[in-house]
Automatic annotation (TrEMBL):
Protein's name in the database: Unannotated protein
NCBIfam families (alphabetical): CDF
Main localization category: membrane
Gene source species: freshwater metagenome
Lineage per the UniProt record: unclassified sequences, metagenomes, ecological metagenomes
Boundaries of every Cation efflux protein transmembrane domain copy: 10-215
Length: 303
């Protein structure tokens, strides 16, 4: 895991844990359903950051006979678990609590306490979000938008933390609006609407993450820019006549399999061919350092 990803996760973990404690205390004093939904959301987020760190640690295991291409996909798996937790613990719980209060409304007590806690939570969450945005800015290419980075990034942690933080910030605002509307209109169902809105938001974010991480788990090819670099590295060698076929697949955010069929000069001996293949591996790794596993098969082009 890159240092920026770890920094964003640690910042989010500390912020969410503190926010969760404050929200649960606020719920005990106010009985606000939106505040309870947000408390569970923050607790789930804290657990999620722990899962991301666990995935990063497990991904560092060296390749062995059980997993000969290493354990890089552990980071994708545990990030996918985060999406499931966000959906079930965060989204479904908030929906359930919101529907319950909408059916059986009751007034929120000590609105001033609830608003104060949510205000403090917004400040803490803003710190976490700004940290994530700053690390994304360092990680993405200058011409990339944040939306493009989230969609195309091969590292799962930063997009997950960023979407969680965005969801948390919006969720806090929804909870605050629900509580204030319920207080000033004397209609407690607004608090329930806030909780339901938070549930829908979290389920939507979980769905976005699940779709993104599914493709990582199945196996994604390298980015087109990286494929182009690999093609250039192979075809630039003087003994290469033709690149017949090229396949790539990520087995982790920073681990790439490269498989290529290449036509070499027909006059090469077996010993010379072996030396050229080794030179190609060096060229490919120099162009794309994450190409850890390279398989080059000599072949002849067929019409």
């Amino acid at each position: 895991m890159q240092d920026g990803s770890k920094k964003a996760i640690v910042a989010a973990f500390g912020a969410n844990l503190g926010i969760a404690v404050a929200k649960f205390t606020g719920f005990a004093l106010t009985r606000s359903t939106a505040l309870l939904a947000e408390a569970v959301h923050s607790l789930a987020d804290s657990g999620n950051q722990g899962l991301l760190l666990l995935g990063s640690k497990r991904a560092q295991k060296k390749p062995d006979r059980k997993s000969e291409f290493g354990y890089g996909r552990e980071r994708y798996f545990w990030s996918f678990v985060v999406a499931l937790v966000l959906f079930s613990v965060g989204g479904l719980f908030a929906l359930y609590e919101g529907i319950q209060k909408f059916s059986h409304p009751h007034e929120t007590k000590s609105v001033a306490i609830a608003v104060s806690i949510l205000g403090a939570a917004i400040l803490l969450e803003t710190f976490s979000l700004l940290t994530a945005l700053r690390e994304v800015k360092h990680a993405k290419k200058p011409e990339e938008t944040i939306r493009t980075f989230i969609r195309t990034s091969k590292q799962p942690e930063l997009p997950v933390v960023l979407l969680e933080d965005i969801g948390a910030e919006i969720g806090l605002i929804l909870a605050l609006v629900g509580i204030l509307l319920g207080h000033y209109t004397d209609e407690p169902r607004w608090d329930a609407v806030g909780s339901i809105s938070i549930g829908v938001l979290l389920i939507a974010i979980a769905a976005i993450l699940a779709v993104k991480l599914k493709s990582h788990l199945i196996g994604e090819a390298a980015l087109p820019s990286e494929v182009a670099k690999i093609e250039t590295a192979i075809t630039s060698h003087a003994k290469v006549l033709h690149l017949i076929n090229l396949r790539t697949e990520h087995v982790g955010p920073e681990e790439l399999i490269v498989a290529a069929k290449v036509e070499f000069e027909h006059s090469l001996s077996v010993a010379d061919l072996s030396l050229v293949v080794n030179e190609l591996e060096v060229l490919v790794r120099h162009s794309v350092p994450m190409a850890l596993f390279i398989f080059i098969e000599p072949d002849i082009s067929r019409p």
